Amino acid sequence: MSVIDERLFRDVVSRFATGVTVVTTRDDRGNLFGLTANAFASVSLQPPLILVCLNNSSGTYKFLKQAGSFAVHILAEDQQYLARAFAQRGRDKGLLVDWQVGEGGIPGLRHCLASMDCKVAHEYAGGDHVIVVGRVERVRASPETDKPLLYYRGALSGLQLIKLRAGAREISWGGATQDAQRAAWTESFTHKTGVTVVQEGPTDYARFKSLTANGGFSWDLLDVEGDFAYRAASDDLLEPLDFSVIDKQDIDPRFVFEYGIGSFYFSFVLAYNQTVIGEHVPTGWNDLFDIERFPGKRALYKVSSPGVLELALLADGVPPENLYPLDLDSAFKKLDSIRDKIVFWSYGAESQQLLVSGTASLGMFWNGRVYDLAKSDTAIRSVWNQNLAIADYLIIPKGCPNKHAVMQFIAHAVSRQSQAELANVAAYAPINMAAINDVRPEVVPYLPTTHQETQVILDVSYWAQHAAEITERWNAWLPVQKTD
Question: Is the dihedral of CA 81, 85, 87, 88 positive or negative?
Fold first, then answer.
């Protein structure tokens, strides 16, 4: 028979979220005894039966067995003090809490969410615990509150759910990025605070605007493209961030403003499949337009946002410092020169498939996606010359009902440890500048922060001001493109 590690077992079972109860009984002098228990369940309606699971060495079980009766109290979210008081060993609980003797002579707690007086009906041995089945004789429900106290992974909390939605057209940007955010941020935040973070998607910017403007809320926090964050702020759709909760001392000042803060920053890099392009090695965006030396299809981001137009102008010889305002005529003329060679991608996993399959020999890609491929495929390589850097931003819809919890989540997500963990998993650069010292040495060469000498920062404020006119022209040009 295999032996299960006790710590691992505790961790696994702690992932089942439960309510919190206190089980009370009396000794032979009528004194209060009790303990905190989250192993509670209803068993039957006819007759009304419930069960609790108690440590067989506890004083509470000893006196419950003698008395033949007990009470179960379901705690409200503001009664964490009761849960902690009754979790202590060797203390006189009657001196710690407010209690009274109930109708059936059972000591009971005041102001709980609900409570039940029970007679012992059955007992079943279960290792170092005893399963006690009680027949319910009296019930009470509080008219004052309907908010339960919850227990999850060792933490007590009220019922708060942060619905985290991320970037347009994808579920939290999908694939490796979503997994990285969950591993680096959400699991540790829930373990620390007890607040559950639900990742959803895809985000619909138009729907977000409509719901927020009318006071409707489908989510509490969004991970969006930088230019959208600035547009939403100018449209009065966002809550200002509380920097008394969110520590911005070490945050890169390029990626924070009153209504948004970077979740991470990444670069569009020129990446290529060496097997497809042959012996030549590309060195910059101009090679994207050299069909003779580098045959094959070109992969470009389909969304109207910073990146494609800028790389076209850089390839046309425009110096980085002269990119803005964008010369749209020149940019579209340059793109027209490879019109029949372009295949578009809309999300990260799709871009990876185009590159690794050879459907596209080279193109523009998020650096983290290239890193993810390069770990297992030596034919996939990247060029950092004139890498186009931009950040995703975390924003909060105006009127968000869970604003305080969301501020705490953002503070956790942009902390040094969380940002370093995300970088280690996904190779996206931390926006917390102190975090770079905690990134593993083998990951550092793949981060945008390592390639700042030739880096071009995409101007999200310019895009926020001119997105409508650019998008109109982009969409008029886009439908004529073929993807086969």
Answer: positive
The per-residue pLDDT for range 424-449, each reduced to its tens digit, is 988 999 999 999 999 999 999 999 99
Tracing tokens 């009153």 back to the chain, one arrives at: 258
- Going by C-alpha positions, the residue among 231, 72, 57, 216 that lies closest to residue 139 is 72
Task: Enter the tokens of residue 112.
Answer: 């709980």
Task: Give the angle 67-70-74 at the CA atoms, nearest 5°.
Answer: 165
pLDDT tens per residue, range 118-140 = 999 999 998 999 999 999 999 98
Question: Which residues touch 478 (CB under 8 Å, ≥6 apart)?
Answer: 302, 344
Pairing mode, strands 380-395 and 256-257: unpaired
Which residues are CB-contacts of 119 (< 8 A; sequence separation ≥ 6)? 68, 69, 134, 135, 137
Which DSSP string corresponds to 62-102?
HHHHHHSEEEEEEPBTT-HHHHHHTT-SSS-GGGTS-EEE-
Distance CA 332, CA 308 (A): 10
Closest alpha carbon to 266 in 450, 474, 471, 442: 450
CA distance 312 to 393: 25
- 3-state SS class at 205: helix
